[in-house]
Amino acid sequence: MPTASGVKLKAPEVSALLPRESPEQYMAVALAEARLAAARGEVPIGAALVDEAGQILAQNGNRTIELCDPGAHAEMLVLREAGRLRGNYRLPRTTLYVTLEPCVMCAGALVHARVSRLVYGAIDPKAGGVVSLFQVGQDPRLNHLLAVEGGLLAAESAALLRDFFRERRTGWGMKS
Fold first, then answer.
1. Among 33, 75, 101, 149, which one carries the catalytic annotation?
2. CA 156, CA 91: separation in Å to the nearest integer?
3. pTM of the predicted structure, to 2 decimals
4. Are 13 and 89 in contact (CB under 8 A)?
């Protein structure tokens, strides 16, 4: 997706920094996308979708404000791009790495896309759709279940969000 200036900023490759197929490597990409989102004034959430061979299919950060789209969460943008690349809305044998536990909308999209595994950083006690408030993707009544792992680089993910909102409150003349 292009930015307002017409150039899409993409998080730098970190593959040289960590061993191939390292979960931390993929979460580092998601964190880099979250930082880019923050720089755009978006809530700093980033995601990366990885296939079974360890290739990143798509990566992005939140763009709800930029695109004037309530559905432009990092997870949704990544699923859309990967679907376009694969020519199919179903994305089996993939893992989504995201810096914050997905909301109900994003968790539902993961189920519909048949993503195999979800790895998230921080929990979202206010809007979490996977473990905190709801268990979308874990409910056996659904036609697809997600393998879920939480807490990967959670401290960094949570700090990024906390600092972003602290700065916003300060900017609005509020005390933290």
1. 75
2. 28
3. 0.86
4. no
